[in-house]
TrEMBL record:
One Pfam family in the UniProt entry: HTH_3
Highest taxon of source: Bacteria
HTH cro/C1-type domain segment(s): 18-56
PANTHER family documented for this protein: ANTITOXIN HIGA-1
Listed NCBIfam families: antidote_HigA
Protein name (record): HigA family addiction module antidote protein
Length: 104
């Protein structure tokens, strides 16, 4: 079974070492607190839309390539869904009148 890693792990294991940055320095460059970035790097907090936008700008290459905000958010969503699917799904009855929607 595929086990997606938390996107903070990618930042911690790949990005920061490649840029030779400390958490404090990376937080300064991103314009976020060291505590907030540390929580993401440790998998205790997710990548927010705002952080994803900051990461996109921060890691954009001169030719305009690099990970997009959408790619960071997609990674976070995959991780969150994988975590959620590890527990039983809540029981929810189908919406009344659902058949009428498919005929419209």
């Amino acid at each position: 079974m595929f086990h997606p890693s938390h996107p903070g792990e990618t930042l911690r294991e790949d990005v920061l070492p490649a840029l030779n940055l400390t958490v404090t320095r990376a937080a300064e460059q991103l314009g976020v607190s060291r505590v907030a970035l540390t929580r993401v790097l440790q998998g205790q907090a997710g990548i927010s839309i705002e952080l994803a936008r900051r990461l996109e700008q921060w890691l954009r290459h001169a030719d305009g390539t690099g990970p997009t905000a959408e790619s960071w958010l997609r990674a976070q969503l995959q991780y969150d869904l994988w975590q959620a699917n590890r527990t039983p799904a809540p029981h929810v009855a189908p919406a009344p009148g659902l058949e009428a929607l498919s005929k419209a």
